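Predict the 3D structure for this chain.
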Amino acid sequence: MTKRIVSTDKAPKAIGPYSQAVVVGEMVYTSGQLGLDPETMELKETVQDQAHQACKNLIAVLEEAGSSINNVIKTTVFLADINDFVAVNEVYAQYFTEPFPARSAVQVGNLPKLAKVEIEVIAHINN
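Done. Predicted structure below.
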């Protein structure tokens, strides 16, 4: 099976040796998206603003891949501080609606650029 690399200027460029997303068959696997503004490559300030920006970045990558936020089947939310769970959850609920994708949310030791939140998803391609 072949893989197709996804890249868009509407989301932050990779800050390491990875792709924004990879499509294999009818599935899209995104790299984790931080709350980076794609134009300035600067993090938004608050955890809520970072969560909003991470979701907007995911939407841009998914659309470039031929998918959408509505086709997400699994998300993983990485938090620098688990105490931000409620705040991030409130933002998350503005982008992911019923039927909700499966989700994991974990606190990690640290995130790139000292971000407060990172979100990655697995989605299927629009048919």
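Strands lie at 3-6, 21-24, 27-30, 33-34, 72-79, 102-107, 117-124.
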